[in-house]
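Protein Record: Sequence and Backbone Structure Tokens
======================================================

Structure line: whole-number tokens from a learned vocabulary of local backbone shapes, matched to residues.

Purpose: to set a sequence beside its fold so the mapping can be learned.

___
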Amino acid sequence: MDNRPIGVFDSGLGGLTVLKEINRYLPSEDTVYFGDTARVPYGQRSKETIMKYTFQAINFLSTKDVKAIVIACNTATARALAEAQEKYDIPIMGVIEAGAKSAVEYTKNKLVGVIGTAATINSNAYNKAIEDMDSSVKVIGRACPLFVPLVEEGWANKDISSTAAHMYLDELVDQGIDSLVLGCTHYPILKRTIGEAVGMDIKLINPARETALKLKDILQENNMLNDKNEAANCKYFVSDINEQFSKIAGEFLKRDIKDIEKVEIQKY
């Protein structure tokens, strides 16, 4: 057994959707969350910059003696996961494989939509992952760059988000997709707005659940589960403290988020 915490990181608030599922399926596990709120969003940045930011986040989380790290950011997963796994001697997983698996299992007509940041969509990471699992599935990608700023501003359920959702998604609906992968961990916070835009006939796939279950499998296989009988603890760190983080995080996780600490992430 291993009672050290699990590290989780994202460009901002989005990784909380993964943290929520980790808390659900691994309720005894302590966690350390880092949100790179000073540099969100990652989606328009170069691969080199995203790799730099990812390595800095991992370096920071490593100072907290974490036993495994979840890159709870599709953009960082697409651009830096392979390099991070090669560089660090610690279990590191991303979120794309889990989303791809869910899409392949659900789709009936073999038409899957994927929405994400420009970096994620342009990387074709979901296309490659889905093709490796089932080459008969066609993937239609759509970058939705406004979604992350809308979530970070706390406007997930405002009219402006609904307008943006229709502008981004109406074309995907017209192309006949039967499932839509929320290929950015911010997007489940927009689930109601996205669902209203695409309609009830299209299944929204949130990779967070499968990511948490895969993490549980990895910890079990390596005898790394926490065996304590105490309530799990989560510590929160950000690169820039703002009121929105604690407010939205508290509303989404259904708990008070206190004692958020600021990190000078450039030092790592």
Q: What stands out?
A: Residues 11 and 40 are 5 Å apart (CA to CA).
